Amino acid sequence: MSRRSRRLLTTVLGAFLLCCVSLPSWGQTPPTRTALRAARLFDGKSDRLLPDAVVLIEGTTIQAVGSGLSIPPGTRVIDLGDVTLLPGLIDAHSHLLLDVDPSNEGGGLLTPVAQSSTAERALLGAKLGREMLEAGVTTVRDVGNSGVNGDVALRNAIQRGWVQGPRISACTRALAPQGGQFPTLQPPAQPLIEQEYVTVSGVEEARRAVRQALVDGADCIKVIVDNGHNLLSLEELKVIVEEAHRMKRPVAAHTTTDASIRIAVQAGADSIEHGYSLPDDVLAPMVRKRIFLVPTDGPMDACDFFDTQTGDAERRRQMKERCRKNMARAQERLRRAVAAGVRIAAGSDMYTVMPGMTRGQASVKWFVAYTEAGLKPVDILRAATVNAAELLRMQDQVGSLTPDKRADLLAVEGDPLKDLQALMQVRFVMKDGQVVLDARPTRSP
Ligand SMILES: [Zn+2]
Description:
Helix content is 34%, strand content 20%. It is α/β, with parallel strands linked by helices. Strands 1, 2, 3, 4, 5, 15, 16 and 17 form an eight-stranded mixed β-sheet that branches. Strands 11-12-13-14 form a four-stranded parallel β-sheet, covered by helices on one side. It has a three-stranded parallel β-sheet with strand order 6-7-8. Helix 3 packs across helix 11 and helix 6 (203-216) packs parallel to helix 7. 45% of the residues are buried. Bound molecules: zinc ion. Residues 93, 95, 143, 349 line the site of zinc ion. Zinc ion is lined by residues 93, 95, 143, 349.
């Protein structure tokens, strides 16, 4: 057969299959029906636990959730016992393609960019993604620092079943003012900056950068509003938000100063990432515009890191003191935001090696740390489920245990509404109806 006629045959056959044949009828088996039983269930919305919970799942989807539901015959039953079932957790600020060793002083963000290819970092992402999943984080929004679209490659690999990991909302390369996020890079190494960020100068470049991100496969747009040397203009940010929203993508705005949070809020970004500096005048507009704060603070004991290092003891003591002061300030601004009615979506910003913990455990520990600022466990659970799902524009699929949602769940020991530390005791994880972790203690006969 000539190449031309083979191509013709393929095209004709393809068109025939598309229009006339319903492929799934070929030897398809009906989706598996599974029932999960657990002593308690948090559905993501209610502030009470449902006792004697049953979740009926068909294939990848939740069919019904209730107390003492009857289970249809022929259903596979997984009795989880004395645990609390929760919607799979969502980390709205992850960096799966980055694992910086903090004891490697001065290396920071630059080292992985300079030393690793995007391909290598995507494979690292596969490892860290698996760790997230096993800690019960079934969805993440990966907000940049993933090389040249390595987050999209990882997202697709997970979707295709090549590797197991959380569902990923990928932001591709972050948009940033000149310099990217390497403000101390001397001399400026533009090729390295461009591997990691898309720098924009002027509204047309800003518009083009969003459009390019969509071509690159972006589910969200991340923008570094300030970088220590430069600050995007309100006009640039407005165009970024307008273009992203026109294509139904949320905008995550990294801000650390009063000036940058003010323009991000004015431009109508969907979330403020970090927001370490939170002037009172942005609180009311954030509430009115339903802009989420994604605090990425972590626990106070993270400052003990400086005790574990070697070198000048006095300098380490000063660094630790500064860390604790910054942490106390961050907790104060989080209390102020919550008191004003600003909605919170959970984000870990975990990008470093945490000794003794997997990436997933460290990320969940960061969520639990919101309790140190006085947040109630139920509000933190909502921040890491329904709220984050809404921010990712995925609330129709994930974030709550209700009919028609994806069967993404985890089971933990104890009662997380009473003590959120329970989130660290993961016994079972399911994603898309597939069991990914079953660490129930084996019962004695
Ligand atoms: Zn970050």
